[in-house]
Amino acid sequence: MSLQCKKCDKCFSTGVQLKHHERVHTEEKPHECKQCGKCFSVVGNLRRHERVHTGEKPYDCKQCGKCFSQVGHLKRHERVHTGEKAYECKQCGKCFSEAGHLRRHDRVHTGQKPYECKQCGKCISVVGTLRRHERVHTGEKPYECKQCGKCFSQARKLRSHERIHTREKPRHERVHTGEKPYECKQCGMCFSIAVNLRTHERVHTGEKPYECKQCGKCFSQVGHLKRHERVHSGEKPYECKQCGKCFSVVGTLRRHERVHTGKKPYECKQCGKCFSEAGLLRRHERVHSGEKPYECKQCGKCFSVVGTLRSHERVHTGEKPYECKQCGKCFSVVGSLRRHERVHTGEKPYECKQCGKRFSQARKLRSHERIHTREKPCFSRSQNLKGHKKVHSRKQSDKLNSNESFSKGLPCEGNVRLRITNALPTQRQRETGDNRIEDQRTDVIEEHCSCWICQEEMSSEALLLQHYENHMRYITEDGS
């Protein structure tokens, strides 16, 4: 049997509930606080209020140990850890962790201001704002300074006043003064804001109270959780005003904007070169220091850039994670995929400034530019250059270079000439145009048929001999 309120027709299941409700209409408040004289309509509200005076906080958070005086406050706090936002605005889709926050937000759309001041008739959308406003009329100042006894109508005014006694500067002023009054007891690091200290302390404790509902990953800061959640949602709220490109992280947007502005705020102290990102500067500084902190666990080879290490590791694993959507071909390096995609798209982004001819690859442009500059390449093929560089690193290079039987060879950077010994035609052979390698050929043909000059592998001795004749023809033409 339901009991109905005669004033508003609201129904209740018990007489006690109806009696409590009727006090809303009669404004009866029979339960008085002995400490401050404040009255309440329900005894439970009085008990909760008394904890303000006693400081009792019986409700403990199992995640972080923080205590609360009311069970509702504990439940609300627990949503900080879970990230739960169960209350969604039907107008704009924005979510909130508390029903009260949603109701307050709804008034932004409706323009509703249900709380009216009885003194002046002013209407306000939030009940807390109404209470603060009423103190203008009543002159009530419930917030008292414990140091000097001065009273204030608002909590924030009391906090501002207390800085006079503590000589603590307002948070914003610390930006200018550089003052950092909050010190970490673990490492001595100082902070200008107390909340930043609490966040930092989680570095030492390892506490990660914010958990992602999608994948279970935990974070030490709520901002990091929100940023991570965009990985799942695909949300990119930060848009570049120049080109309209969107980003999920505001820091990535700022870095991107420097592409348009050309701003490079990070300068190398060694050579003065400037960079748009701090990470690029740190990577560049390793050029001067020679530091290679990233080591391959398979072969021990070291790299200065972590991305280069990852690309190298795919040599061992054979992994090719970058797949062409057009033909399905896979690549181990993303740059190789981009070059390959131009085969399908026909894109040629590299343009010759002399004649306007375009190329799909930068190396093809460089090769073409030599037509205009008439510069002769040191090596006709990149693998020839790689093979030549190995010559310099050979332990017996001094012994091989000591034979001066032939003074000309393939040109090399730094005016270095390859000395081709025991595999060259005689002076008589060069005069008659006979460049065949006869008796001396066995000195250079190795068991695996590898060219000593450019390290190119051949499948047979005959092909290797023909390959050497091509080298000799180049040398003879160069000397003529």
What would you note in describing this structure?
- By secondary structure, the chain is an alpha+beta fold.
- 42% of the residues lie in helices and 12% in strands.
- The protein is built from 18 helices and 28 strands.
- The strands form 14 sheets. A two-stranded antiparallel ribbon has the order 1-2. Strands 3-4 form a two-stranded antiparallel ribbon. Strands 5-6 form a two-stranded antiparallel ribbon.
- Strand 7 and strand 8 form a beta hairpin.
- It is elongated and about 115 Å long.
- It starts with a strand and ends with a helix.
Main beta-sheet annotation: 2 strands, antiparallel
Task: Detail the poorly predicted runs.
Answer: 395-430, 435-448, 475-480
Biggest sheet strand order reads 1-2
Task: Figure out the total of helices.
Answer: 18
Helicity range of the residues?
Answer: 40-55%
For the record, give the distance between the C-alpha atoms at the N and C termini, rounded to a whole number. Answer: 117 Å
Protein name: C2H2-type domain-containing protein
Subcellular location: Nucleus
Pfam families: zf-C2H2 (PF00096), zf-C2H2_11 (PF16622), zf-H2C2_2 (PF13465)
Keywords: DNA-binding, Metal-binding, Nucleus, Repeat, Transcription, Transcription regulation, Zinc, Zinc-finger
